[in-house]
Amino acid sequence: MLQALGLSPPEDAVYTALLARPSASAREVALQTGLEEGESDRILLDLAARGLVAVTRETAAPAPEPVDGGAGPRSARYRLTPPSVALAPFLAEQRNALYLAETAFSKLTEQYRTTAARTAGGVVEVVVGVEQVAHRFLQLQRGAQRELLVFLVGEPTAVPREDTDTSESSALDRGVDFRVVADKDYLAGHEVVRDVRQAVAAGLVLRMAGSLPLKMVISDRERAMVPLDMTESGGEPSAIVVHPSGLLTALVHLFEREWAQGRPMFTPGTGVREEPAGDLVPTGEELEVLALLLAGFSDRRAASELGLSIRTVERRVRRLMDLSGVESRLQLGWHAARVGWV
Question: What is the pTM of this model?
Fold first, then answer.
């Protein structure tokens, strides 16, 4: 159970044995685990030195000297220190080691692929198969050091959404500039809306487009990945990875054009909230409704995406119009753009 945290199998067995009782001697642990008493004693002392186990002694008789210079006193008993405290440093160490290993793996693989791509005909790399496509997609996101540019269209076909969320969080934690343009049909379900809201709160910047021509991810403006039609690969998901070239430059320009024309989504409205009269400014929930409506969603569709009733959506729109002092939704959109609500 604890080998994933760096404990050996015998250490794992001894630690697990102590879970079942308030305290135990080395002999009792040896009987429960099948280890030799000397080995059990040595492991307990080592765990105590690492802060995983605390040593107590019986008061009925004085403790004799250690035997053979290696075993603890016969009267010594051992109990676990609280796992939530003792194991936390081990967990943090393993997480850090895994992160460093993933980073090194991504950099080495990218260096190899970049070198290979610079040979004749190496501008475009074809990737076929679910595992290969998912690996290259996550590699581009995890290897990004400065910027990620993404088009979101339709349902995921090769990369599970939970894996995408994890790699997004990792990029945001590293301070990567993360900009996303999403097709308006992408927000198809409350879980997607919730995940997008959490990502925006973490630093991702999102805009909505009426339609997008393709899915795409661009990493540091050095590599891009675009899916291919599955019919071209016998029904398997496939994609091309584009290395530095005129084609990559064109894909970056395509993103920037759609970004410039996209509508901001789930904007936090920090400047508005800093106004002193808090009841005269829109709430975050009202701005979410406004953003969906400006993206072309109907009241019914906006209500479905946010998990609200249509009457709630209408009530929030009505309050926005009252705050703006306008008589129509068209005027509301103009006012929202003028004062920076979107």
Answer: 0.48
- Whether the Cβ atoms of residue 208 and residue 295 lie closer than 8 Å to each other: yes
What CA–CA distance (Å, rounded) separates 88 from 75? 30
Residue with structure tokens 């609280």?
Answer: 82
What's the CA gap between 241 and 59, in Å, rounded?
71
For residues 35 and 165, give the distance between their C-alpha atoms in angstroms, rounded to a whole number. Answer: 44
pLDDT tens digits for range 266-293: 544 433 232 333 456 788 888 888 888 8
**Sequence-distant (≥ 6) Cβ neighbours of residue 40 within 8 angstroms:** 14, 26, 27, 29, 30, 33
Q: Determine the residue type at 178.
A: F
CB 254 within 8 A of CB 247: no
Beta pairing partners, 242: 124, 224
Pairing of strands 124-128, 76-80: unpaired
The number of angstroms, rounded, from the C-alpha of 220 to the middle of its chain's C-alpha atoms is 19
List, for residues 157-216, the tens digit of each pLDDT value.
Answer: 666 666 566 667 788 888 889 999 988 777 665 567 777 777 787 888 888 888 898 999
Tell me the β-bridge partners of 333: none
